[in-house]
Amino acid sequence: MESREFAPKVLATYRAVIDLFREGADLNNLTVSEITAKAGIGKGTAYEYFKSREHLLMDALDYYQKSWSESIQEELSRQNGFMEKISCLFDLLDGVMTKIRKEALEEICNIFFFYPMFRRKRKGGMAERLRGIVEEGKRGGELKEEYPNEYIVLTLTGKIFNYIAYYAGMKEEEPGECTPEQIKGFLLESIRKEVVKQDGEAETEERIMRV
Question: How many angstroms separate the CA atoms of 156 and 130, rounded?
């Protein structure tokens, strides 16, 4: 996402919110004063650009996920198949999850799962990236034809949220039953079984096409 799309003070505000999240700030108690202090701007300036604290937070998280989504495109484009791209995406998520403190991860999960105002449709970002991967997989004959693209995107989105929720629920002082690598493996395998054509299905389809 091009930084020049935003006014410098808006961009500073977005980055301040993300920095505070990474430091483990509590969304419920995070104030506009704390955000603007981190951004190095006056509190009143924030209200020149945002209707409310909630809209400020929502737009900042939108900016973060869209920027991250665009930053990983080059890496994803180097992967050849559908499952290779999805596996790469989960690996890239590992890098994000380990940089954000557990408390902030819990708040992000709350935002996207439970706060209705944060679930409004937004253009760009990870949803569009996933749609692109699914469309490419369909064109390449890798995905089951009986499932519409929208359903596959929703399936992938759910698995990604499951992975984020797992990280948010991890307790550093108590080893979990599964490691992140194991959880990632289970999720990838469930995606493969649910939406990817198995060898027998692909061969049958090829025979039908030849007839």
Answer: 8
Q: What pLDDT does 179 receive? A: 87
Using the 3D structure, point to which of 15, 42, 61 is the last residue of a domain.
Answer: 61
What pLDDT score was predicted for residue 167? 81
Domain extent for 111: 72-210
Q: What is the pLDDT of residues 101-156, one digit of tens each?
A: 666 666 666 655 555 444 455 566 777 889 999 999 999 999 999 999 999 999 99
Q: What are the φ and ψ backbone dihedral angles of 143, each rounded to 5 degrees?
A: -105, 155
**Judgement on whether residues 102 and 202 belong to the same structural domain of the protein:** yes
Residue identified by tokens 């929703």 is 154
How many angstroms separate the first and last alpha carbons of the chain? 47
Spell out the residues 6+ positions from residue 135 whose beta carbon is closer than 8 angstroms to its own: 149
